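hi support,

uploading two proteins for the ticket. first:
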Amino acid sequence: MKIAIQGEFGAFSHEAALKMLPGCSVVPCTVSADVFDRLLQKKVDGAVIPIENSLAGSVTEHYDLLLANPVHIHREYLLRIRHNLIAARGVKLKDVHRVFSHPVALAQCRDFFRKSRGVEAVSFYDTAGSVKHVIINRLKDAAAIAGRQAAVEYRGTILKSSLEDNKQNFTRFFLISRRPHKDKKADKTSLAFSIKNQPGALFKALSVFALREISLSKIESRPVKGRPWEYVFYADIMRGDDEAARNAIRNLEEICDFVKILGIYRAA
């Protein structure tokens, strides 16, 4: 299977794709919109996208793209994020004076920089891309922070592992495809809905789940593009395609401006 990801070979999305679909062929894309374009143009069979990090929060661009495109969530996967200090072969830890990585990764390794006097944190567009930059340019005074897969891809040396400040660092990934996924063991549904700007509208929307004792594991709002001060709500409910969930969603459709099912799948 060909699976599109955003980022370079060796990115955490690459690692997640291999965990979800061992043996898949990964197709790297520069920006997230390209991932969805390749999928819709049938150039790939599916895509793996990060949707939420346990520390940094949601990847809001991907929520917007899920809403705007006719794609469906098939699976979710929780990847433990382990940041590694990776350098070109022959470079020693004492030689490192610059460390490249994505700003989020740098921010998650503050303790390392606090303890490493004289080491400069340098923002880069991508974690795996920073490893590629350090290795290809044979930088002798620099290293990069990324996942282990990046060290494998670019034949770098891991000088130090588990740099992340918080070990409860996980990213939730979605496997998406052009077609809906049917799984009799599905126990989770992701959906988006928009409500009228009226008193009690959100309460009424959420009550369709509460009255049926359906638990929500997540809810958040996003602004509607081109319509200032109007919002879409994204929610995850802990039910699959059963009678209670179907009745709740039918009820939701009666009171909302629109409802879109993003995917019905097994919880990770």
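and the second one:
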Amino acid sequence: MIAAGLIAALIAAGCGSSSSSSDRNTDMAQSVGKGEGELNLVAWAGYVSNPWKSEFEKQTGCKVNVKVGGTSDEMVQLMRTGQYDGVSASGNASARLVEAGDVSPVNVDLVPNYKTIFSDLKDQPYNTFDGTHYGIPHGRGANLLMWNSNDVTPAPTSWDVMLDPKKAAKYKGQISVYDDPIYIADAAVYLKAHQPDLGIDNPYELNQDQFNAAVDLLKQQQPNVGEYWSDALKQISAFSGGDDTVGTTWQYQYFALKGKGQPVASSPASQGFVPTEGATGWSDTWMISSQAAHPNCMYKWMDFIVSPKANAEVAAVLR
């Protein structure tokens, strides 16, 4: 059962985040030398694409190999193999990587383009720990509600199209839900608006009663779900083929489907409004492995990917 899996994974994640800071890696690079000629990355779909990938390789001579991760849990496990130099870690992975010593602090003085990054992305609790930078922040966005505008009418303005059992039943078997413990926060956002007596303030910090209520809501949702997705490309395929008609998604899938001429609409970002309950979001951080075999290429990548031109190219594709 997906709810049981989410509970187990969330408990495991929580235990990992509470570990002692004594396991943290504190070795920080003091200089960046010549690139090693290769770079192995774990990244979300679309994060290491052309034209910026080929431009980086041309500029630095570092050939980029990328492993696309479907979930934060998968990314953490891949990084722990020691086979990758860096990762585009989301907030629900970065603390685990830091506390377990899987990543090294980042010397931002060796990343000249760090100064160009939007200030609100810096010094956040998912990229800076006890005043030490453990990564280079890179982008943020909302978790979208997406639907097929031919099949879902009227256009929804609330997450109830997925989370209210009676309304969701209309699309039974065609609802697409992100398969990760972090989705419990989406349920909490919904409950915050519809059950204020629960007293939910932060959807990412729930007491036991609030947590139980969110899990119960997802259990009620389960019979109507057709797909729990972790692979962005599979969700694109499911919407393209008509198997999914409404679901939670990222900007990457939405814009990919729009580019294919699919009749999709979404909220909040692309339509200028948010669902009545609000929405969760994400912000990612490029982090360097404490076992990086190609640290110079990784530092060059972190500087390149947040340079104004590359950053604009990424934004055009992903946002």
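thanks. also noticed: Residues 139 and 283 are 6 Å apart (CA to CA).
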